[in-house]
Amino acid sequence: MSDRSLVDVGLRKNRWLLAAGLLLLLYGLVEMLDCATLLLMQWGGIGNPYPSSVFQPINDLLNNSPLWMLPVFGFFAYFRLMAAVGILRNRLWGFWAAIWVETITLVFVPFLLPMAGGDALGAILIMTCLLVGYLGRRPILSEGGEHYDDGQ
Prior knowledge:
The protein starts with 14 loop residues before the first helix and ends in a 17-residue tail after the last helix. It contains five helices and no strands. Helix 4 (92-108) packs antiparallel against helix 5 (117-135). By secondary structure, it is an all-alpha fold. 61% of the residues lie in helices and 0% in strands.
């Protein structure tokens, strides 16, 4: 792998993992825009562009004190970008970081509906790419019915 290339040469052959890494990178950059949006909201540059949440305290925070949401948005931005770099560099820690952050996303979606509906779809798409890309065509059981062991 060239140190100057973000994407590992071997990873380019696995389209599923490449897609997951690129989606995470895009998703992390969008989260960075969300952080910038919160700052603009706090400074009065723009109003609240987010749809109303089911939970009134979240609406109150976004409307009155948007900076309180910055750690949440920053958390997801950081971990998605970190996981994207890890996956694109073909690092196992990137795979597990992505699984972790997307699982957290799916756990929190019910509390942030309806604005987190897109987050849920993105998380499901990324998780699918990760799992299909990592597990590929590995069988669940071998032909004899025993558990499959690929020697790893």
